[in-house]
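From the shared-data thread, chain only:
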Amino acid sequence: MNARRLSLPRRLSAPACRRRAAPARIVRRPRGERRAGRPGFLPGPRRREDLPFRVELWNEARTAVEQVLAVTASGGIGYAAFYAATRELPQRYITLRHKHRIVSRRNGPGH
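Structure, as tokens:
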């Protein structure tokens, strides 16, 4: 019996699954240097001035802020911190501020 050979068209290049990928190039830059026009992957730490909500604990005479309990960018988180502070320190004067305006306050029992 005479066997015939099938001729398949020959490809000019190797199939995509067999091609070798070019090695990845790693470019190292000094710290703090970024590529122009492209923001960094992670945002930098927010400055304290960018955080407008503050929960403040006042002194007994209510003349000055004794301690800042929380500083946040979110009003919801600020109010949660304010609520927690009023539950922990019910006898103290506590305020929640947005920039320079008092949003909420809790007077202690001696008001």
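The helical segments are 75-88.
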